[in-house]
Amino acid sequence: MRRRTKYNAKSCRCNQGHIHHSRAEAAYCDNLYLDMKDLNADPATKITEIENQPTIELVAGIKWKLDFRVWLGLTEHYLIDVKGMETREFQLKLKLYRWMLKEGDAWEPLLIAHVHQNRGMVTFSEAWYPKSAGERR
């Protein structure tokens, strides 16, 4: 008998063949690739590249494996983490990342996509942006 995960998340494949840790993550990946293929999108905000499960280093060797890094246009990109439920580990890593942004050590914007289990919809309830060069100490 297969052991259940703590939050009943089941690994599954998206339509592109990538293995994701949850159905919500796989569905989000499918939506990103659909947006990438949109021919009517503004070239400045069109998704040009998607990296699955990028890893960033926080502090003192602590690493955070996120769900996606998405490039928009030619230069802008975001880190995205899809969450159905926030774990204590996630909350700690988010605090470390916010601290790094405050200190000017992090330079990539982070979006947290919360999946609402009942309605199946995704909202960006949190977004963290690095300081501009003029705001740094």
Describe this structure in words.
The protein has 137 residues and is of the alpha+beta class. The protein has one domain (12-128): Trna Endonuclease, Chain: A, domain 1 (3-Layer(aba) Sandwich). Helices cover 22% and strands 31% of the residues. The protein contains 2 helices and 9 strands. The protein has helices at residues 23-36, 88-103, and strands spanning 12-13, 19-20, 47-52, 55-57, 63-65, 68-72, 76-83, 110-115, 122-128. A 5-stranded mixed sheet has the order 3-6-7-8-9, with helices on one face. A hairpin with a 5-residue loop joins strand 4 (55-57) and strand 5. The longest helix has 16 residues, at 88-103. It starts with 11 loop residues before the first strand and ends in a 9-residue tail after the last strand. Mean pLDDT is 79; it is low at 133-137.
**Shape, principal axes of CA atoms:** globular
Instruction: Report the sheet with the most strands, covering strand number, pairing sense and barrel closure.
Output: 5 strands, mixed
Classify the beta-strand content into a percent band: 25-35%
Proportion in helices: 10-25%
Rg calc? 16 Å
| Number of self-contained structural domains | 1
The chain-level structural class is alpha+beta
Spatial sequence of strands, sheet with the most strands? 3-6-7-8-9
Average pLDDT reading: 79
Number of strands: 9
> Terminal Cα separation, in Å?
56 Å
CATH class annotation: Alpha Beta
Q: Please tally the helical runs, counting DSSP H or I stretches of 4 or more residues.
A: 2
H-E order = EEHEEEEEHEE
